[in-house]
Amino acid sequence: MSMEGRIDSILQGLPEVLSGDFYIRHNTQALLEASQEGNKTDIDNSITSLIGDPRVGVASWGSLDPSFRWFMRKPFAVSVVSISFVLMHLACLAAIWLAFSWKLVALCAAMYVIRMFAVTAGYHRYFSHRSYKLGRVPQFVLAALAQTAAQKGVLWWAAHHRHHHRFSDSAQDIHSPVTDGFWWSHMGWFLSDVYDRYDAKSIEDFGRFPELRFLDAYHWLCPWLLGTATFAFGAWTGIGAWEALVWGFVISTVLLWHGTFCINSLTHLWGTRRFETHDQSRNNFVLALITLGEGWHNNHHHCQASCRQGIRWWEFDPTYYALKMFSWVRIVRDIRPFPASAAGATRP
User: Fold this and answer.
1) Could you tell me the residue range of the domain that residue 37 belongs to?
2) Roughly what angle, to the nearest 10 degrees, separates helices 154-166 and 210-217?
3) 3-class state of residue 4 by DSSP
4) Per residue in 189-231, pLDDT tens?
5) N or C end of the chain, less CB within 10 A?
6) Closest CA to 44 of 1, 90, 92, 6
7) Where is the domain boundary, 46, 72, 98?
8) Alpha-carbon gap, residue 11 to 145, rounded angstroms
């Protein structure tokens, strides 16, 4: 029997929307391939018990064989990504032994804001939701700049985010704090090797560009180049090569990670709900401040195609303001507004 046939036979008890799910089929195939080095019967039985995963919602989590529970919900995988994640946090402590200056704090803040804009305007509002249009060159520049944030590849990020919106806070959502807890949604899913792959079909609109496929395949290249440039900048300006590297790259990157991750975790737990959406998305002014407007998450889930997420005058959304200014010089085109009809559909 072919691999696809074996997967189909194992998942035949699931509804079609689940048996055809990219992540479920990918994880099942991985265990089937692992069976070549072990007892095939036992491995296949363990794969069958994947339908006990609460994300699938067919049986209880406790029914899954303990030796394989990690596979669908492993919060921390020993991999290049997870080891780098830990080392980056530890490297922040180097600031204790290095010279301090407010110029270094300013550098850290500037690197945070520029790259947060690239993540929110690029990864999120452009590549995930296509809420405005760019030419091919600005598109590449924005993707490369966003990848300096060290949040994996542009196609990987956008594909997973589209999946999140399709199944937000349901059993199939890959990073819901409602179904899987705060730490998994905040960073566990990102560190886990379960989601290293993505459904290329869900991002075919951008996957057709070879330069984006290159960036996505070598997503580590942009952070390394930025780190090197920051080190050289510190040496050239006299603020200190190692000091610039730690403050301008390491600390700002760690802050950037957790700022971005808060949108996956906290904006589904903490805040207010203006709109009745099918998930638990919430608006949060504090998170909007640290993410340049992404904290208006309930607004966003209510109207995902809108480039503007802060729809009231007091809802701080600097990402939208910057994109609007870029539209004045025609770098950005066809910004999608928040429809007046959608804005009026508030909760009673």
Assistant:
1) 3-72
2) 90
3) helix
4) 888 777 888 889 999 999 999 999 999 999 999 999 999 999 9
5) C
6) 6
7) 72
8) 41
